[in-house]
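To: structure subgroup
Subject: Chain for Friday's discussion

All,

I'm putting the inputs and outputs inline so they're searchable in the archive.
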Amino acid sequence: MKALLWLVGLALLLTGCASEKGIIDKEGYQLDTRHRAQAAYPRIKVLVIHYTAENFDVSLATLTGRNVSSHYLIPATPPLY
């Protein structure tokens, strides 16, 4: 019985440490792949970083809508996962 409790505790611990689906740990940063642009196409030749006047949630909704190509949105304060 003691061994079974130990195994259940270990399984719960490992489950709690699992990374969130769609979050990829890279060296020095995390990549969030949970949001995809509807008009995305694998033709990226240039990466342009520009400022958006809206808050993160409004910008995310805009950049994942129709008639928008692929964008990388960088939050002012990156979330910790």
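Points worth raising on Friday:
The chain has one domain: 22-81.
The CA atoms of residues 19 and 65 lie 27 Å apart.

D.
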